[in-house]
């Protein structure tokens, strides 16, 4: 059965389209009898208002484009839940586009959002993204944009990021307070701003603890962590470990098990969304970066920009 339109209802009831429209909106100029007839017909034939057409007339699609670097079990799901919780309350819908860590696909996703007439864009950049020239078109047509998590420091767009300085300084202090002498610090993709920022602040803080020796490695994935530690742990021992993310923690955990390192003999500190460590080892100490909160903050900021843009 085809979808019933407002025009179909008008023909069934032998009244004008405008009368049906106003009756459905409880317009005071329409009699109660006509309103009842229209609403009964709408219910009988499962009439569903065309939100796109309504919003188009209002110059608003009530749709948000969400662009993420890749679909991942780490962190991204909780961010999406946070975004959804805010947008749903405000009557917005959103669709998710994955850039698959490709700046070319990221550019295609931006074009898709523009062609879909979204009211705004939420974006977390790929590890390949070094500049924002491909976002210039968004600025030209004045579509509000909020970046979150993976961003570029020189960006003129609104950004939602965690306090990376506080997070890594707290991690360094905890390792020092545990009297660790030799630590392994595992960071993510070396090319990302977030990785460079966390590394710089972490190493700067360690200067306050000259008794601690630190080895730094960079890994783009959990598998990369496992590959590197499979070699490193054969000839070096550490009494402290720092993982900058859930993904690096997953690789570290797997490696410690494989190399039969007793977690009771070492200190493991990680910056994490909070869920993963519960299923790994209760002795791991976590600095929580709540993805749900980041999602709610990013969505709220975008809605504010959309409102101000009208």
From TrEMBL:
One of its GO terms (molecular function) is DNA-binding transcription factor activity. The lineage of its organism: Bacteria, Pseudomonadati, Bacteroidota, Flavobacteriia, Flavobacteriales. Keywords: DNA-binding, Transcription, Transcription regulation. Residues 4-58 form the HTH lacI-type domain. Pfam families: LacI (PF00356), Peripla_BP_4 (PF13407). This is HTH lacI-type domain-containing protein. It comes from the Bacteria. It comes from Chryseobacterium mucoviscidosis. InterPro entries: HTH_LacI (IPR000843), Lambda_DNA-bd_dom_sf (IPR010982), Peripla_BP_I (IPR028082), SBP_2_dom (IPR025997).
């Amino acid at each position: 059965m085809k979808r019933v339109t407002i025009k179909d209802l008008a023909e069934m009831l032998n009244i004008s389209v405008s009368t049906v429209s106003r009756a459905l909106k409880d317009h005071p100029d329409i009699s109660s009898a006509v309103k009842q007839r229209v609403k009964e017909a709408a219910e009988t034939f499962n009439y569903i208002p065309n939100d796109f057409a309504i919003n188009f007339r209002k110059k608003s699609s009530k749709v948000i484009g969400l662009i993420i670097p890749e679909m991942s079990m780490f962190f991204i799901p909780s961010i999406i839940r946070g975004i959804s919780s805010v947008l749903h309350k405000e009557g917005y819908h959103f669709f998710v586009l994955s850039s698959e860590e490709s700046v070319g696909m990221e550019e295609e996703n931006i074009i898709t959002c523009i062609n879909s007439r979204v009211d705004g864009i939420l974006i977390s950049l790929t590890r390949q993204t070094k500049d924002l020239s491909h976002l210039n078109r968004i600025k030209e047509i004045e579509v509000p944009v909020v970046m979150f998590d993976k961003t570029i420091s020189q960006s003129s767009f609104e950004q939602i990021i965690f306090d990376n300085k506080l997070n890594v300084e707290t991690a360094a202090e905890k390792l020092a307070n545990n009297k660790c002498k030799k630590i392994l610090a595992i960071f993510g993709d070396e090319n990302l701003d977030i990785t460079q920022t966390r590394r710089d602040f972490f190493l700067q803080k360690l200067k306050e603890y000259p008794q601690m020796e630190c080895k730094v490695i960079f890994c783009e994935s959990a598998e990369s962590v496992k590959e590197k530690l499979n070699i490193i742990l054969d000839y070096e021992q550490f009494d402290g470990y720092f993982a900058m993310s859930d993904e690096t923690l997953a690789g570290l955990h797997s490696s410690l098990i494989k190399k039969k390192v007793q977690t009771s003999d070492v200190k493991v500190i990680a910056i994490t969304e909070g869920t993963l460590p519960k299923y790994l080892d209760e002795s791991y100490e976590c600095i929580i970066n709540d993805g749900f909160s980041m999602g709610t903050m990013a969505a709220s900021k975008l809605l504010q920009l959309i409102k101000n843009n009208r």
